[in-house]
């Protein structure tokens, strides 16, 4: 998501996340759903709650800032939440911890918050686009 295409001359890589961000509303939703799938993978692998919390925080930060047009895309390019989460997972996959019921409840609450942010961002984006369309048609 964050490192698909190498940009010549600099150390950063361009990912599908930034490309999806170009499409208002849809890009943020698609990127967030993929980010959430990484959290679900972590749950299935029995990753500790604290790590899942850090991963969810990365997704939330990326999505909250991503709501802001242009600034959000630039932030996502710099922040690379999915790469951060992937690195966190790789560091902890060697530690065999089993998820407990409280882990699953905690992660469910965090995922609920992430989904709430995604839905709110989507509604906000479409409201803004609707108002822009109304202004453009009345001119």
Descriptive terms for the model:
139 residues, mainly alpha, two-stranded antiparallel ribbon, 3% strand, flat
Structure report:
- This protein has 139 residues and is an all-alpha fold.
- Helix content is 73%, strand content 3%.
- The chain is built from 6 helices and 2 strands.
- A two-stranded antiparallel sheet has the order 1-2.
- α2 (26-44) runs antiparallel to α3 (49-66), α2 packs antiparallel against α6 and α3 packs parallel to α6.
- The longest helix has 38 residues, at 101-138.
- It is flat and about 60 Å long.
- It starts with a strand and ends with a helix.
- The mean pLDDT is 78.
Task: Give a short synopsis of this structure.
The chain is mostly helical and 139 residues long.
Note the topology.
Layout: E1 5-6, E2 13-14, H1 16-21, H2 26-44, H3 49-66, H4 71-79, H5 81-92, H6 101-138
Antiparallel strand pairs: 1-2
Helix pairs in contact: 2-3, 2-5, 2-6, 3-4, 3-5, 3-6
